Amino acid sequence: MKKLLDKVKLIFDQEQFVHEPKELYEPIEYTLRLGGKRIRPLLLLAANQMFGGEEDQVRYAAIGIETFHNFTLLHDDLMDKSPLRRGKPTVYCKWDENTAILSGDTMYALAWRYFLRLPHPNLQTILNCFNETCIKVCEGQQFDMNYEHKDEVTIAEYLMMIRLKTAVLLAGALKIGALYANAEASNVENLYQFGIHLGLAFQLQDDLLDCYGDMAVFGKKTGQDIRDNKKTYLILKALEIATPSQQEELHRHFASSPENCEAKVGRVLDIYNQIGIRQHVQDAIQKEFELAKTYLDNVQVDPIRKKPLLELMNSLFERKK
Amino acid sequence: MKKLLDKVKLIFDQEQFVHEPKELYEPIEYTLRLGGKRIRPLLLLAANQMFGGEEDQVRYAAIGIETFHNFTLLHDDLMDKSPLRRGKPTVYCKWDENTAILSGDTMYALAWRYFLRLPHPNLQTILNCFNETCIKVCEGQQFDMNYEHKDEVTIAEYLMMIRLKTAVLLAGALKIGALYANAEASNVENLYQFGIHLGLAFQLQDDLLDCYGDMAVFGKKTGQDIRDNKKTYLILKALEIATPSQQEELHRHFASSPENCEAKVGRVLDIYNQIGIRQHVQDAIQKEFELAKTYLDNVQVDPIRKKPLLELMNSLFERKK
After folding, report:
1. Residue A78's closest chain B neighbor by CA?
2. CATH of the domain at B224
């Protein structure tokens, strides 16, 4: 696992992202150097190694999938008008909207350049997997935007949305890594499903940490989703199990945007605590986590080869539980 | 040529562009149904047929290249804040900015889906050609945006910019069509260069028509580039050959944005007429046109097979000369 982290770090450190015109490429380099956990390249490399793949064959795919992911963050930040990403100004704030649009478009094209760099007998299958994943991520983002204006969002709808917006890219990274190593179809499929449930657990944990995370570790102020009236698993589950009067109050808070939000955040957290929402979310995370593990168990490979992926998985859920 | 036009029309009529979520796909269908001349699919099919290719093998690539082109128009219209495209409201005006961003991103991914639909022995080469073209188009758009704020733009810089922004996509369409038909490398290269010079001639003609086009045929008010202070071949050439006092006046007009622009447009056109700018641009167009023809002459294939492409080329320059 440590070796994997070092490898991914080295792959990115060795890469050169600035070309001409610099007005286009400097925001791209800035975005790709912001860091982050590099989960998708890590998953891609881990899946590849599990089936005996060669690092040199997947290093560009690893950069490609991270470049795509960072492109989606860049455009999402513009659409959400987010001022900060990883504690630094977002591209649209540091430069401007047009720079964010065009640098993002170019990053997407650069992701393809990485994927097209090396030949592979499975290349068309690999590229199709990458592309269908990209389309699903866009669809997920649209559902997310739709739900902002939709009065009633069900938990099933929410889970469908985060599957598209978040889980399929983790699953796609694993599948691509496995395809590069010519893994058997049943193993590829089990690994993909592992990624889907890992991704769902990961997003649900993100929702939970927004309210109950350790600010110092999580790196942002808690309760931001409540301030933004964002429909996450927490509020949807709360509305399902709260008493009628609590429901009424929650609806009221999530329809308001007071200048000083702290009283609102406090009241919503009070209700969350009264109904024990934290445990409900932890149960949902645990369920997805167990499902993910079952799919990984079904992958037919020497168990010792699963160790880096298991370690990676555990590290993602160790953070601040 | 008529057969080619009918084929391209049929290919687009038969295609279904709407899926779920409709908020994402309706603007895409709207954009792809706005019409336009479909020059890139026409070039792709014509090049393919020239070397004996099969229509069924390139129909998706033809849709793919037009989908990419329309994606760039969609994002360009947003960046330029253009209200109209082909006489209809642009996506960002009819819907909103976020819809334009995300629908555009998705169109780009859909372009890839079309390109990945069929197998081909040359697929990696074809996809690389498509992708390098996409990157160049983005770079061209950035240079175009840079030049808006740059005091001195040379004609060489301008030609480099329109080569990237416009010509490489026409050249890429031709190259892709030829690659699908397994044309020889030297023929592919000559056809690519034909496309580059055709594209340059095409853009220069577009610049000319903006000032001297027949409004009824061209479909927009003449002099718009002057109103927008847009640096096109006309003003750059004019600044090169005008007298010092004319230069000074042109500089003054291109630094101003008066509420009533008509006096300004009239004065700039007066100077253009005094120095005979129209003839200068026509000479430049003719030069590129002749160069294009030379490259097409160098393509080693039965001359009768070049007829549709020659007809297509001539029809592009017949419009309103």
Report:
1. B98
2. 1.10.600.10
